[in-house]
Write a structure and sequence with these properties.
The chain is of the alpha/beta class and about 180 residues long. It has a single domain, classed as Rossmann fold, CATH 3.40.50.1820. About 35% of the residues lie in helices and about 15% in strands. The chain has five helices and six strands. It has a six-stranded parallel β-sheet with strand order 2-1-3-4-5-6, with helices on both faces. Strand 1, helix 1 and strand 2 form a beta-alpha-beta unit. The protein is globular and about 40 Å long. The model has no long low-confidence stretch (mean pLDDT about 95). It comes from Flavobacterium zubiriense. This is Alpha/beta hydrolase. Keywords: Hydrolase. It holds the Pfam family Ser_hydrolase.
Length: about 180
């Protein structure tokens, strides 16, 4: 079955050099959610843009969310019909409930929904992510019913992490896609 890989960037966008941007260029059938204000995100606006993008896609969707976008996807999934979503890769979630870990401009995404997701998902974190503790990322993955991966000390898995095409992430994505195909 043909699916669309939906890239959902977080705060500041995933620009040239970020693995999400590399995946956007590398994989066929890939789309990206574009936000009006990447640096002062408002959850209502971001939810609207995510929903509009999803509604415009006709094939089943595998979401690839990074950082703040992980909370965005959790909020969207709680409020909308998720039947088009066949899976989600939730990378480096930012703990929007923690003033210790995240900047004030993203706190309006709190509280993070804790409902189990209605589609297969994988949460990936790094052991030294400045925006969330490993324990908190694992707690979120358990609540969402997601598989959990700690990829070791690689920062926020963003542009500064210099992951290029992030082959390790591609392997985890492929395991998600295989599990989706097996369960159809």
């Amino acid at each position: 079955m043909k699916h669309t890989l939906l890239i959902v960037p977080g705060l500041g966008d995933s620009t040239a050099g970020h693995w999400q941007d590399s995946w956007l260029q590398h994989f066929p059938n890939t789309k990206k959610v574009v936000q009006d204000n990447w640096n002062q995100p408002q959850i209502k606006d971001w939810l609207h843009n995510l929903d509009t993008t999803i509604k415009a896609i006709e094939t089943p969707i595998v979401i690839v969310a990074h950082s703040l976008a992980v909370s965005l996807v959790a909020h969207w999934s709680q409020q909308n019909d998720t039947s088009k979503i066949v899976g989600a890769l939730l990378v480096a979630p930012a703990d929007v409930e923690s003033s210790e870990h995240t900047p004030e401009e993203i706190w309006n995404f709190a509280p993070i929904p804790m409902n189990q997701l209605k589609y297969p998902s994988i949460v990936i974190t790094s052991s030294n992510d400045p925006y969330i503790s490993v324990e908190r990322a694992e707690f979120l993955s358990k609540n969402w019913g997601s598989q959990f991966y700690n990829v070791g000390p690689k920062g926020h898995l963003n542009l500064a992490s210099q992951l290029g095409l992030w082959e390790e992430g591609q392997e985890i994505l492929q395991s998600l896609i295989l599990s989706i195909k097996e369960n159809q």
